[in-house]
Write a structure and sequence with these properties.
Elements (H helix, E strand, L loop, with lengths): L7 H33 L1 H17 L3 E5 L11 E5 L8 E8 L5 E5 L7 E4 L3 H16 L5
Antiparallel strand pairs: 1-2, 2-3, 3-4, 4-5
């Protein structure tokens, strides 16, 4: 095994710093890429929201599909989920956003990327989370 000289320890730490800096720059570029994938993936988002709508309908929730890109000012398709008969103003707005690794995820549209509900491959889990969220919102004293 080779012994390190006097200046070689610094060189390693400089290389590590450069590697970390490059990693930070790469991660910083992901946000614009994810936004671009979300805006270009309108058909993918609609397909996933349709699957979620079927799962929510089985649980008794009503929904309104807000998919038309020309008729609304929002760039992504949305699904407004609300209770049938109890009140029409308590509901959840669900969107589908691109996530890292080429995947998609259900999100609470009010919170954007911070409102992650479930991966799009699991519409049942997303329906459970929306169901739990809306029940807690409609009946706060029982939870």
């Amino acid at each position: 095994m080779r012994e390190m000289g006097v200046g070689e320890g610094r060189r390693v730490s400089r290389e590590k710093r450069q590697m970390v800096r490059g990693l930070c720059q790469a991660v910083g570029r992901w946000r614009p890429v994810l936004r671009w994938r979300t805006r270009c993936g309108h058909d993918v988002a609609v397909r996933h929201l349709d699957l979620l709508a079927v799962a929510l309908k089985a649980r008794g929730w009503r929904y309104v599909r807000l998919y038309g890109s020309g008729e609304f000012a929002v760039p992504v398709p949305l699904l407004w989920v609300y209770a049938s008969g109890v009140t029409d103003d308590a509901g959840a707005l669900v969107s589908v956003l691109a996530t890292s690794g080429g995947a998609w995820g259900y999100h609470d549209a009010r919170w954007g990327r911070y409102g992650f509900l479930a991966p799009c491959g699991d519409a049942k889990a997303a329906a459970e989370r929306v169901d739990r969220f809306l029940k807690q919102r409609l009946f706060p004293g029982t939870w």
